[in-house]
Task: structure prediction
Amino acid sequence: MILLETSLLSYAYRRRSQADPEPKPVARLRELIEANAPLAIPGIVLQEMLSGLRDDKQAVSVRESIQGFPVILATENDHRTAANVLETSRRSGKTISTVDGLIAAMAITRGASLFTMDGDFSHIPASCGLKLLR
Result:
């Protein structure tokens, strides 16, 4: 399974000029979709995607863009794992946001890769077991 993170989805669904070439992460996401790769969105990513939209038209557009992806909800174990990720990161001198810790934990507990463009995830220590797809 591959979990999709907010930075990637925001970038992929951002309006661009038709003349602009397709960015590499967007092309990779398209390849994964066309290959029917097992893609999903953590519930907190869905919430982030739907927060702070300019107007109803943009909200409809975002909802339509991501509606085909299954949404994975966090479990109690995900929250416990997130606390461990945050603490392990803090001990190694890196500060990770609570939301990023939860997203990472959801990938870790499911043995999934996390497809992200957010460099903060690379600060999570390898000992946590997070697999990144970049």
In short: The first helix runs from residue 6 to 12. DSSP finds six helices and five strands in the chain. Strands lie at 2-4, 39-42, 71-72, 113-115, 131-133.
